Amino acid sequence: MTRLLAIGTDKGLFLATHDGGGWAVDPLRFAVKSVYAVAIDTRGDTPRILVGASSAHWGPSVAISSDLGKTWQEPDDPAITFPADTDAAVENVWQLAPGPADRPEVVYAGTQPSALFRSEDGGRSFSLVRGLWDHPHRPTWEPGAGGQAIHTILPDPRDDERMVVAMSTGGVYRTSDGGASWAPGNAGIKAVHVPDPFPEYGQCVHKVARDGIDPDRFYAQVHHGVYRSDDGAASWESIAEPLPGDFGFPIVAHPSKPGTIYTFPMIADMDRYPADHKCRVYRSRDAGRSWEALANGLPSTPFYPSVLRDAMCVDGGDPAGVYFGAKSGEVFASLDEGDSWETVAAHLPAVLCVRAAVI
User: 93: which of 52, 195, 281, 308 fits an S-S bond (Cβ 3.0–4.6 Å)?
Assistant: First the structure.
């Protein structure tokens, strides 16, 4: 079994592999480009890696490799652009998500400003999903500290017409008709930065994950809050009380064990470091009713960096691998579902995202 780990940083992409021994980290790719979005698409016979890389001079683009990073294809013109009538331009690609298993050429992208794009050719070109862009709420979506962007795209594995997306700041939105219409799904999520603590929309949602077994169950890490939904992201209840802090960015779900989730809590939005300055991942095996701290093999010295919204992931191995990267440039892996950890790499640029797969 070979595990592939893609590490997006603010200065390029690193690919790491594990074949049963130690980790091997390849040289930097897409040098001096910020890589906020990576997808490893395993639906076809050959895995594809899709990278959203942004140049300070040339802007954002999407590159594709079908040979595990040996070569890359990148269009001469940007793959993701807004129609002329929108008077908008893509500032960054924040998310790349493969579509349903039976539609191997469908890929979705989330951008800044908040927009959803769909590709029918494996990520080589994209078209704007107008139903979300034309939603009456869109003019009043506001940027979070990291920008106003769609960072979560969760197609329903049972039905290509159904999908959940999330953005900061704007909240959770759902469609059941292929993106023609969208409804907010934020009931029960508290907003701490607006006069109405429970608005219909406008929450600063940091990340949403779908349960690995129950497709109607979701988990959300919000600006001051961790939540679970048992009704398809229509309403939410808090699961943050047992944690040492309710602020954080990532939340991920085990792909084959129901109710098993991971997060990296921090103290508060103004104190963005882990509780007690300790590097600990928290795992729940009962859908957030209880949590356990996982630290075996992680740094024991005071730890201050943040772990960003897409800088944690889980692969599909047995046992599953769990991974996270820090803004200080360390990347850690657990090949036993969080029970023990090892360092994959250190002294990298700030880690923006990680994605992993068994190939």
Answer: 52
What does the pLDDT read at residue 179?
98
Residue 223: which CATH number? Answer: 2.130.10.10
Instruction: Please state the domain count of the chain.
Output: 1
CA atoms lying within 13 Å on the CB side of residue 77: 5
Query: Residue 226: how many CB atoms within 10 A of its CB?
Result: 28
Give me the pLDDT at residue 192, please.
83
The predicted model scores a pTM of 0.97
Q: Which structural domain, as residue segments, surrounds residue 126?
A: 3-358
Lookup: tokens for 112 = 């800044």
3-state helix, strand, coil in the chain (%, to 5): 5, 40, 55
User: CA 335 to CA 19: how far, in whole Å?
Assistant: 12
Q: What residue ranges of the chain have pLDDT lower than 50?
A: none
- Torsion sign, CA atoms 267, 273, 278, 282: positive
Position 124, amino acid: R
pLDDT of residue 347: 98
Partner residues linked to 73 by β-bridges: 64
What SS3 state is found at 289?
A: coil
The two structure tokens encoding residue 318: 């047995």
